[in-house]
Write a structure and sequence with these properties.
Elements lengths: L4 H6 L9 H15 L1 H8 L5 H22 L9 H23 L5 H8 L2 H12 L6 H22 L7 H27 L1 H11 L1 H14 L6 H28 L2 H5 L5 H13 L5 H32 L1
């Protein structure tokens, strides 16, 4: 054997990670989030919505603070704190509280259909925040999806002239979360994915602790073990660990494909509502959910395509 043969024998080709790894992590995060609406519906059956919405954030903030301390993360600086405040207002304060109050009086499947607007709403906020100029098809798909959600809410409320307060809260939750997701996606490039969520949780923890204590004085809790288990899931998984899988999937990528797995979330939520809560799946729920998901998916795809086209043209 020649001396240079050993170099060839010892050479180990690099192991390429399959593209599907990112998709599987993304789907794991989406699966974790898909239980949020049904289990919120369960929790508010024995606890006040204020306690559920704020208390879950307190649990997540404790875990986030511990993770940040153990890994010795650097403090955000300057305008990053203001951006974290916007993120926290959306995904830590706005979405949990608004959905908790809304799900007191509407089925979980109803909430899942309205919240199916989330991908399109997030894409819209990202367009405005990033000063993008998408095609008319993007805006058409977004408007049709919004109209489908509003039409569904009208049909479910039994009146074509007004929306119920629960639907207004759900639409507000969608807007709040969209702002939090879009801004969080941008800031995660600077602070890191899970670090961004963790700092947002820690930033508003004094407010959420105060709201939790106030809720306990206002409405004493008489919850069952199942309701407490649901509340624990919301705090540990929905508000904290679910983001680890979700953002890991986005980090592995490809981001364009992984982000679209979020369209599966309302379908899973409706299924869990039927299996866990015994809610019936009506034709209006099925058709409304399908219409909104299709519009959201099309809007996300149309927004991404021009970006790829411009990139290819420059290259």
């Amino acid at each position: 054997m020649k001396t240079n043969d050993s170099a060839t024998v010892n050479f180990q080709p690099p192991i390429l990670r399959p593209v599907t790894n990112g998709l599987w992590w993304g789907l794991l995060g989406v699966a974790a989030f898909s239980f949020t609406v049904p289990l919120t519906r369960v929790a508010v059956g024995g606890m006040s919505p204020l306690f559920v919405g704020s208390g879950r954030a307190v649990i997540a903030a404790l875990l986030a603070g511990l993770a940040l301390a153990l890994t010795q993360q650097r403090l955000p600086h300057g305008k990053q704190w203001l951006r974290l405040a916007a993120i926290a207002g959306g995904i830590v304060v706005g979405f949990p509280l608004l959905t908790s109050f809304a799900l007191q009086s509407v089925p979980a499947s109803h909430g899942a259909v309205v919240i199916a607007l989330m991908p399109a709403a997030t894409a819209t906020v990202a367009v405005v925040r990033g000063r993008e100029h998408p095609s008319k098809a993007f805006w058409i798909a977004t408007v049709i999806g919004a109209l489908a959600a509003i039409g569904f809410a009208f049909l479910q409320s039994g009146s074509l002239g007004s929306l119920s307060w629960s639907d207004l809260l759900l639409f507000g939750a969608v807007v709040a979360a969209a702002i939090g997701y879009a801004e969080g996606g941008l800031l995660a490039r600077e602070l890191g994915a899970w670090q961004t969520v963790s700092w947002a949780l820690v930033l508003v923890s004094p407010l959420m602790v105060g709201l939790t204590v106030f809720a306990l004085f206002l409405h004493p809790i008489s919850a069952s073990p199942v309701q407490w288990a649901s509340f624990a899931y919301l705090g540990v998984i929905s508000m904290f660990l679910g983001y680890f899988a979700w953002y890991r999937g986005l980090a592995i990528g490809p981001i364009a494909q992984v982000s679209q797995t979020q369209l599966v979330q309302p379908v899973l939520s409706i299924c869990w509502a039927a299996l866990l809560l015994g809610e019936s799946l009506t034709w209006t729920t099925a058709l409304g959910g399908l219409a909104i998901i299709l519009c959201a998916g099309f809007a996300v795809r149309v927004r991404l395509n021009p970006v790829r086209t411009r990139t290819n043209a420059k290259s």
